Fold these 2 entries.
Entry 1:
Amino acid sequence: MVKRLDYGAFMEKFSLQLSPSQHQLPLSGLTFAVKDIFDIEGYVTGFGNPDWARTHSASTSTAPAVMDLLTAGATCLGKTVMDEMAYCMYGVNKHYGTPTNPCAPDRVPGGSSSGSAVAVAAKLVDFSLGTDTGASVRVPASYCGILGFRPSLGAVSTVGVLPMSQSYDTVGWFARDPKILNRIGRVLLHLPDVDPIKPSQIIIAEDCFRLSTIPSDRTVQVLVKSIEKLFGAQCVKHAILGDLVKDKVPSLQHFMDKGNEDQVDDIPPSLAALSSAMRLLQRYEFKNYHAKWVTKVNPDFGPGISERIWDAIKATGENIDFCHSVRTELRAALTALLGDHGVLALPTTPGEPPKVQANPVTSDIFFSRPFSLLSVAGSSGFCQVSIPLGRYDNVPLAISLVAKHGSDAFLLNLVETLYDTLQETI
């Protein structure tokens, strides 16, 4: 059941636009919402927590990413609910309520950009801004049955965006329409329109799809049939990603040995180690940004969030240098694998969204499976798009495409080209 007319998506509603233009702008007539992690002049950036909002003043400037959208003619309709301090992927917030997933009201919407995803899925806005550090655009896009784009690391300005972990923080966006997703990208990435380029190869990460609880005929086979129809069967390739990562990212050894006791049997050890390295560096960087405030204020955090934040506050710098080596080696390995116009296909998430009433799980074992998938783009800094593929057992499912760093325009064009054929093939 829907709790409120806005599905609980909004923290604060307003209408913000620059002076109406007499000529057509790229985003004229479109509305959007903004995750409450972006500065907007005159409004407190709440970071999903009332103690944070209480101890911080209103912003004196607007984040460049938001300004770009306003300058392009879009109208901002408000700020959206998020997980506290962007430190979860469920979309649950004990203070402001959990936004209702319009596609599956008994399931969580995904986080931490929960309200932004819900606002788009519920058709309250045409698109929205979120951030993706570990998973915070890709997961809610998957859970809410919409498109979600995580750009290449550094491609969109994070100035005026509260940091979570600078090595992974990106500004991402949601839309229901691939054409709008692409138009937003042109504005945020400051890119001209370019003609689509045929992918040289689309590589199916077979071991990653084996982690999914969704039958392959609803994911892999839909994608393969669509690719063959549009680009020819020769475009489809297959790979065991875990083997490639094990061979080409030697620094992962430091995390494979350490994490054996938490190993989940069906996850390739190299991908589990990649997840461990990512989460270690994120905890360490989160601590550097926010430990002083957390220890001074002792804020009220919700269950699950509290444990994870306090674990981060206790993080040490052990193995941090190896985390950076992993990132460098992984980017080189995936760049060599994909080439200029190759794409890697994998599940966005390994299964269906959890039920809203499920107890929050904090163990590393639980997070290993989703993050072993999500850390591929996160750790390499590559761009990734989550594409909805209808429903399975009455909940949304999705597939993801990953392209090399800096190939955002190529990937956005590919989604626009591929989208309708995917939906027809489901």
Entry 2:
Amino acid sequence: MAANTSSIAPAPPLKDELDIIIPTIRNLDFLEMWRPFFQPYHLIIVQDGDPTKTIKVPPGFDYELYNRNDINKLLGPRASCISFKDSACRCFGYMVSKKKYIFTIDDDCFVANDPSGKAINALEQHIKNLLCPSTPYFFNTLYDPYREGADYVRGYPFSLREGAPTAISHGLWLNIPDYDAPTQLVKPLERNTRYVDTVLTIPKGTLFPMCGMNLAFDRDLIGPAMYFGLMGDGQPIGRYDDMWAGWCCKVICDHMGLGIKTGLPYIYHSKASNPFVNLRKEYKGIFWQEDIIPFFQNVVLPKECTTVQKCYIELSKQVKEKLSKVDPYFDKLADAMVTWIEAWDELNPAGASKANGKA
């Protein structure tokens, strides 16, 4: 007699193909709220700051935890490319993962509710985004044509309806907005309560400010470009780590024929960081971004750049050539970009040939 399988819950999507990366300086009590969604998956926790501090993880989670001593031991001299005392250290988790997909979240991000009151499974929505094509070459006015109840609108070229592989899914946040320090200072009480039920592809040739606290990506397609730069201790800038990675990834995705989606899913961002501390971290970046943005808007990658690694090395050369005039920091950052790729390829020798997209 056949077993009744109607009551068996479906397997979590991509259970064996996805790692969750969390940078932290504190005990991970926030995972209790995420347990229904995260427990089936493997966690990689990157402990920032003091490596002698014990980080407690709630029981029942499958995880590995790396502190600064582990990073130094694993990478040796190349550990210099991993930021210290900054959440940019999370990119070390991208490097040591061996899964095809990555989801990364901050430890002050909780489960949000949709307008009906239902808890949002952010991870499930990110997976949906990544598994459906993007439309970077022609804007669809119904946004993501692959969502249920949508399609390509009249006038959308049939030759472009196949879309492009999705490399990055960029999620949003309710409650505390992701503002820079000057905006925080003038709007200290502002909260984002607007839930917009939309996913859209960022068009080719358009940059965006990527936020790393609710982010997923296809590691095989874009992983080597997901370097969060040199930030934090010993560096003249902070809070530009995810944006730097986003700008680099966007120009590489445009070159490689890959797409980036933004919109759903939402998480609940629970804690506002100190705007005065943020201003101290950001103030040079606020000036520098007026040169950085035009730099990325005008980057041209040669056709010989057929892998993400080759694109990233070429980008590092152009950073050294063009942005080191803005500040010597960019000379050091360009060198760190090369070190990052060397470390990535050392830990991921097979990945060196996998990180290809459509040229």
